[in-house]
Amino acid sequence: MNNRSAARVRWPSSATAAKYRNSRVSMSMPQGYGCGYWTGAAGRREPDRTTSHRPGRVQMSSPNIELIRRFWAGYATGDLDAVLWPDAVWHVPGDHPLAGSHRGADGITTYLEGLATGDLTADVRYTGADETHVVEVHHCESHRGDGTDIAMDWVLVFRIDRGRIAEIRHFPADQAAVDEFFNVLVGG
């Protein structure tokens, strides 16, 4: 049986989305993330005058974003030591064999190799940065040998300390689907 549709992210209906749009809940990003806007004291969307780019344009480059690009290139070449602190940790939520805190370059490499067991592909949809953090939104797809696929967005939050990655936090859109998928794939 193919569970592809069960693993996909389900977005709210337009009626539900309208309800949240009209509520007092705000999903604004902190000033300095390069998104061009911030929520002012009166609750209105104000232009972010702290950046030099035009409002609405995402900052495409910063030293911390370049560090994350070097992290992914370093993983591909097997050289993460230059971008990670020796005690760096990647926190993975969930109840599956890959969940937990993976420490150091070896632990993080082992975790990423576990993800590759399912022929994982990840397309970066968004990257934003400030002085201490980089946020990446990935659309990820993975496939199991039994025909089950998983496809959803994952958010990675990298904490940067003195030019190196100190911590990574991982947030999948559907934790239950991730748990089920990797429990069968990796054996939990």
- Into how many domains do the coordinates divide? 2
Strand content: 25-35%
Provide the spatial order of strands within the biggest beta sheet.
4-3-8-7-6-5
In the predicted model, the low-confidence regions spanning at least 5 consecutive residues are 1-58
Mean pLDDT: 75
Pfam family, one: SnoaL_2
Organism: Streptomyces ficellus
InterPro entries: NTF2-like_dom_sf (IPR032710), SnoaL-like (IPR037401)
Protein name: SnoaL-like domain-containing protein
Concise description?
With 188 residues, the protein is of the alpha+beta class. It has five helices and eight strands. Residues 68-168 form the SnoaL-like domain.
Fold and architecture overview:
With 188 residues, the chain is an alpha+beta fold. It has two domains: 34 residues, no CATH class; 125 residues, Nuclear Transport Factor 2, Chain: A. It has five helices and eight strands; from the N terminus they run ααββαββαββββα. The longest helix has 15 residues. The relative contact order is 0.17. The N terminus is likely disordered.
Write a concise keyword list for the protein shown above.
alpha+beta, Nuclear Transport Factor 2, Chain: A, 2 domains, 6-stranded mixed sheet, two-stranded antiparallel sheet, 8 strands, SnoaL-like, NTF2-like_dom_sf, SnoaL-like domain-containing protein
